[in-house]
Amino acid sequence: MARLVDRRLNPKGKSLGNRQRFMRRARAQIKEAVNKAIQNRGITDEPVGEQITIPSKGIREPRFHHAADKGKRERLLPGNKDFLPGDLIPKPQGGGGGGQGKQASNSGEGEDDFSFTLTADEFLNVFFEDLELPDLVKTSLKEVTAFKPHRAGYSTSGTTTNINVVRTMTHSFGRRLALRRPKQAEIEALETQMKVLRDSEQPLSLSTQQQLVELEAQLEALERRRRLVAFIDPIDIRYNRFEHIPQPKTKAVMFCLMDVSGSMGAREKDLAKRFFLLLHLFLKQRYKKIDVVFIRHTHQAQEVDEETFFYSRESGGTVVSTALVEMQRVIAERYPASEWNIYAAQASDGDNIGDDTARCTALLQEELLPLCQYYAYVEILDARELELFQNTKNGKALWRGYRSVADTCANFAMKRIAQPGDIYPVFRELFAKPGKAA
Amino acid sequence: MGDAARSTAAASRPGLLFEGSEWNFETLERTYDAIADIALHDLGLDVYPNQIEIISSDQMLEAYCSIGMPLMYQHWSFGKRFVSEEQAYRKGYQGLAYEIVINSNPCISYHMEENSMTMQALVMAHAAFGHNHFFKNNHLFQQWTDAEGILDYLNFAKGYIAKCEERHGIDAVEEILDAAHALMDQGIFRHPRHPRPNLRAQMEQERERQEHAERNFNDLWRTLPRQEDKTGETDDGPDVCARKKKLRLPEENLLYFLEKNSPNLETWEREILRIVRNVAQYFYPQRQTKVMNEGCATFVHYYIMNKLFDEGRITEGALLETLHSHSNVVFQPGFDDPRFSGINPYALGFAMMQDIKRICVEPDEEDREWFPAIAGNGDWRGTLRHAWANYRDESFIQQFLSPRLMRKFRLFQLTDDTEESHYEVARIHNEGGYEKLRKALMLSFDAGSVDPTIEVIDVDLRGDRQLVLQHKVRDGVPLDENQRNQVLAQVRRLWGYGVRLEGVDAKSGASQYESVAKAVSTAA
Questions:
Q1: Chain A / chain B CB contacts < 8 angstroms
Q2: Where are the domains of chain B?
Q3: Domain boundaries, chain A
Q4: How far is CA B457 from CA B241, B265, B470, B502, in A?
Q5: B53 touches chain A (CB under 8 A)
Q6: Are B51 and A18 within 8 A, CB to CB?
Q7: How far is CA B304 from CA B94, B308, B316, in A?
Q8: Which of A185, A66, A257 is nearest to B472 (CA)?
Q9: Is-contact B478 A71, C-beta < 8 A?
């Protein structure tokens, strides 16, 4: 009478379609919530899911409902203690009511906010959308490990590009021997024999004819056997086998340099933060251990922690070389280049004191860049300023100085940015060559 | 390991169906047969063939949120429910329903793999027999739902909507679905004027029906009186009456009306409206029989599990587990308990079924006075089966709620008038109050009183083609204004022209309010 069906192995995630539709609907609000979350997160935080609370504007489901606040209702309630007919009970002030339960928040009435949790994946997706990363990069950032194929013996299955001819032929030869496949030479010998007999004195004597018949039968048998036993059989084929070895991960250190003088406001710092975050995410995929060093500078440089780096305001002039000197010091002290892969990211608004730029350029070209795997510089501008400075050759003092470095060094990249979508191109070189990181 | 070994090997007492909490398919089948035996031969139930599906809690969550149906078309509102339920479940705020059962033939019930064997047995008794019998035998379900065809129909609906999305784009389909969902409560027939739906036939005759409908619709709009004939037209004039008759007004099923008569919908949009209202119709009886349905299933599981214990087929431990779960389910907090959230249909339903059983077998004086037809008739099984088949919640309460139960629940009636600053206790569970208290409780379950009554009453075919809806306002309770305006905008989307909603007092006919969604002027 009953059928028992085990559905536990059915593909899960049937609601994935519905969940995705819901996300699409609430996209604008989700983006906003993600932006806010980024501001609160640290650079080195694990990408985890995020609790989102969104106002239910676009996701309400209106119905024709009775209003709760007008009219006359008869309520039937259980659990009477000592009320008698005719009793008057004062209404509680504001809210409450006759003990009826609260409206569920997802019915769309009353409660304003709807809250749910994004998965880590979805969070990253929304974050990447803003940055306009090419898809390939997105997947590589989410990937866990990089692999490299190494030869590892032979296999009986594979693709045609990997056929090992020598071994295949060896096996084929062994099989032919074992199955006694007639050699071409045997057949030819027989044929010559037959030819000789046929060409001998005409007409053919009886014994000759008999011999011929025998030889024909032998020939036929040989040829049949040759057809049955193939020269190369699929069973013979051998392929080269490759094994995927995870790339050895070593250590990386990331230097974050930022100008924290008064001219860097909240917007600039937010852009800088995304810039640092992206580099960090990239490094995470390649390295097991990443250290992050925060160096802020005005006319003096200090190594600080992340909190101070982003949130405290300083006042003072701007001398960029101090940051570079500080970076040098830290490298010398704690991060020998032989053991550590050094990456650096610098953000500033482009101003620098008079003749300091020359010093920076020298420091970079001679001391720092030889040690670094990659050095990325962003100049954060206003949208308007960006238009004015279209020409990448011109610009503020620091920009022009760094330009000359970029021209000579391959591991240096620089860009002007005014919004998150502008950030990625700085890293294009870096992302384009995954092998470089190893 | 020990538990599993014990439950499959010969049990420690002969006749025990299972011991311990591990379950396997063999035990499930053995237990199912024992339960079926009691259900069919002792209780005399009549059920559809059962299909029992074992699923994981993740899958239960998914089933839960697409309104419990194994196949359902996709919509973002289900996604919204899913994310919210998932969050609540993972935080431990709520447990998942331990059973979901579908009104279909075969009757599909879902069991969570994480449940113990005792719970599996309980759920089998509750869903695969209790609910199953109710779905098959209750007159409302027989009249309004098509158990044979529903699964195929939903499969068709899902495929159709997916095709529409491919052809017309996700946004266009989402727009129509949003509008249709907003009107889902007003998309049902409540009065048996229309024949019982045959979903299979509907699927097969789809195209033929569409062509026919389009022809009808063209007729309607073609025979509009010309502009020059405007003179002398009154609201009760013969033309108006003829028009109302042709449109079969007043019409309570807004989706049906829009589907058949809206001048601006494409064929595929009409089909989507039809799908949504068929689904709404399918679920309508469930709202009207919540107390009876749950009461029936709870009663059945309670009886069967106890009988199994009496016959020595389950252990004391299993019975205790059953009783523990059962008492949680039928718990009714008092009105001033922080856990109170209304009258628990499981509690009320189960109490009434037990009560009926008692009245049939051991009535007291009060019972004989109140229930002369059934008191002492000795046949509680027959009486219950009769009730399950022929009543709905409101008539069931009206007929069978006893004073004893009203006293047990300590029911009382509170008048809540928003104009007043006090609540007034209208009546309680005492000698003079029983009749009226019962009537009031009955009304609170009557879908006709609880849902707003909104009908199409006219279409101004000659003028601006405005659609006129009427809301009968009872006891001064209006519609929630914000949502009302949003829904009217949706109606306008489906109708294509302006829509007017009038609120009139149900008793006096006096006008209470008016709300208009003006026609959106289309740019040339």
A1: 271
A2: 2-138+289-310, 330-449, 450-517
A3: 14-58+111-131, 160-240, 251-437
A4: 11, 20, 6, 10
A5: yes
A6: no
A7: 27, 6, 14
A8: A66
A9: yes
Both tokens of A220, joined, read 């036929």
Radius of gyration of chain A (CA): 39
Distance CA B248, CA B500 (A): 19
A2 at the B interface (CB within 8 A)? yes
B71 touching A, CB under 8 A? Answer: no
Q: Token pair for residue A399?
A: 């920009």
Instruction: Work out the minimum CA distance from A37 to partner chain B, whole angstroms.
Output: 19
CATH number for region A251-437: 3.40.50.410
Nearest CA in chain A to B483: A62
Contacts of A21 (CB under 8 A, 6+ apart): B74, B75, B76, B79, B170, B174
Phi, psi for residue A54 in degrees, rounded to 5: -125, 140
For residues B213 and B219, give the distance between their C-alpha atoms in angstroms, rounded to a whole number. Answer: 10
- What is chain A's pLDDT, residue by residue, as a tens digit (438 residues)? 678 888 877 666 656 677 778 777 777 778 877 777 777 777 777 667 777 777 666 677 888 888 878 888 888 899 988 888 888 888 877 544 433 333 333 333 344 567 777 777 777 777 777 666 665 566 556 555 557 788 989 999 988 899 999 999 999 999 999 999 999 999 999 999 888 888 877 777 888 888 888 989 999 999 999 999 999 999 999 999 998 876 655 677 889 898 888 777 788 888 888 888 887 777 776 676 778 899 988 888 989 888 888 777 777 788 888 999 999 999 999 888 777 788 888 988 888 887 888 888 888 888 888 888 888 888 888 777 776 666 666 677 788 888 888 888 888 888 888 877 777 777 766 666 544 433
| A1 in contact with chain B, both atoms CB, cutoff 8 A | yes
Q: Which residue has the tokens 């570079």?
A: A324
Interface predicted TM-score of the whole assembly (ipTM), two decimals: 0.77
Q: How far is CA A83 from the centre of its chain?
A: 67
Please indicate if any CB of chain A lies within 8 Å of the CB of B41: no
Task: Say what angle helices B170-182 and B267-288 make with each other, to 10 degrees.
Answer: 40
